[in-house]
Amino acid sequence: EKDFIGLTPKDFFAHDLEYGQGIWTELFDKGKLHIDTDERRFDGSQMWVLGDYTNMYDSQGRITGQFGLQIDITERKKEEEEIQNKQLLLRTIIENIPDAIYTKDLDYRKTLCNSADLHNIGFKSESEVLGKDDFDLFPKEIAERFNADDKSVMQKGIPLINREEFFLDKNGQKQWLLTSKIPLQNQNGQVIGLVGIGRNITEQKK
User: Fold this and answer.
1) Is the pTM of this model over 0.85?
2) Residues 166, 195: contact at Cβ < 8 Å?
3) Could you tell me the sign of the dihedral formed by the alpha carbons of 71, 75, 78, 82, in that order?
4) Average pLDDT over the chain, rounded to whole?
5) In whole angstroms, what is the distance from residue 157 CA to residue 183 CA?
6) What do you get for the CA distance between the two ends of the chain, in Å?
7) Residue 198: helix, strand or coil by DSSP?
8) Residue 107 CA to chain centroid, in angstroms?
9) How far apart are CA 178 and CA 158, in angstroms?
10) Where residue 151 falls among pLDDT bands split at 50, 70, 90?
11) Among 180, 146, 196, which Cα is nearest to 166's?
12) How far, CA to CA in Å, does 128 sit from each of 95, 144, 168?
């Protein structure tokens, strides 16, 4: 603690004085400040800081100093970045696989679909499909068939593998798929939805 007593913002932010002065100027003006940003330690290494600062006042309302609380969240940020990178990798793989891939929640609504799935059912953007169930996307008799399979997979927890089935796309064209549906489980083993994979075999059928 004695190494820090008497130091000024210029000492703390010697590596980036403009940034440090900006923080203290904003604090003087607003009275309170919350930051979530990267900074550098005295040894030059990078850290990520979550901080709350407030002005201190005397009985006349004059600023007498500042109070600050900083939490080093560098490790948490590294973990978040690692998760984001894994999600990006997974999404890249999903988008570049020629088979249709989608996920559904316990209400049988789509929560993810790739470009191949959109192409099969005749939509252009994921936003047109997410949150919708098969009854929103297909004729009733086809939706009932798909929904029955979904219920069986999620309720029994048993995958459905390589079933040949057909549907009518948005333009009314008959499409054939080789479909697999796998129950999606959380860390406790509870089924929270399903993953669907469909290979378009329309040309083979023709």
Assistant:
1) no
2) no
3) negative
4) 85
5) 6
6) 79
7) strand
8) 20
9) 17
10) very high
11) 146
12) 17, 21, 17
